[in-house]
Write a structure and sequence with these properties.
- The protein is α+β, with helices and mostly antiparallel strands and 143 residues long.
- It has a domain of 72 residues.
- It contains 2 helices and 5 strands, in the order αββαβββ.
- Strands 2-1-3 form a 3-stranded antiparallel β-sheet, with no helix packed on it. A two-stranded antiparallel sheet has the order 4-5.
- β1 and β2 form a beta hairpin.
- It starts with a helix and ends in a 21-residue tail after the last strand.
C-alpha cells in the first residue's frame, strides 16, 4: 500500500509539473534557506543539510522545530529527516567478563590442526566473605 501511495503521488505530481513559487525553510522560526521553484528546476531533488549548534540550537533538551512554507502554484512533495549522535558513556574500568583466545598459529594449510587456548575471567569484585560465630547460652542448671 505504501508503494502504491508513492507511485500515485509521483503520477499526480508529474501531471502537475507547473510548480512555481518559493519554499522557505525555517528552523526554530528563523528562515535559514529559501528555494525558488521554476519550470527549469521544479523536478529536481533539492537537499538542505543543517549542521552544528549555530543552526540547531545549543540546548539539547529543547526540541528543534523545522517548518516549510510554500507559496506558489502546484504541489510540493517533501521529506524531513533528523539524525543525532549520543556518545557512549565512559567505559567501565573492567568489563564484568573477559574472554581471551590465543591460537598456536596464524596460518593453516589444508588438514592442519590448530590449538586454541581460551581464558575466561570473572572481573567482578570478589563477593565479601562471611564469618559466622555462634554463641550458646545454656541455663546454669545444665552446666
Amino acid at each position: 500500500m505504501a508503494l502504491r501511495a508513492i507511485l500515485l503521488a509521483s503520477q499526480l505530481s508529474a501531471s502537475d509539473s507547473d510548480v512555481r513559487g518559493t519554499v522557505d525553510v525555517l528552523v526554530d522560526g528563523k528562515t535559514v534557506q529559501t528555494l525558488t521553484l521554476t519550470p527549469d528546476n521544479n523536478d529536481l531533488f533539492q537537499q538542505f543539510v543543517f549542521k552544528g549548534p549555530a543552526v540547531l540550537g545549543t540546548d539539547a533538551a529543547t526540541p528543534t522545530s523545522v517548518e516549510l512554507r510554500f507559496s506558489g502554484t502546484g504541489g510540493l512533495a517533501y521529506q524531513v529527516v533528523g539524525r543525532y549522535f549520543t556518545p557512549w558513556d565512559a567505559k567501565a574500568a573492567a568489563e564484568p567478563l573477559s574472554i581471551d583466545v590465543a591460537y598456536d598459529r596464524t596460518h593453516l594449510a589444508q588438514d592442519d590442526i590448530a590449538t586454541a587456548t581460551a581464558a575466561i575471567r570473572n572481573n567482578l569484585p570478589a563477593p565479601p566473605t562471611w564469618s559466622w560465630s555462634t554463641s550458646a547460652f545454656l541455663p546454669a542448671s545444665t552446666c
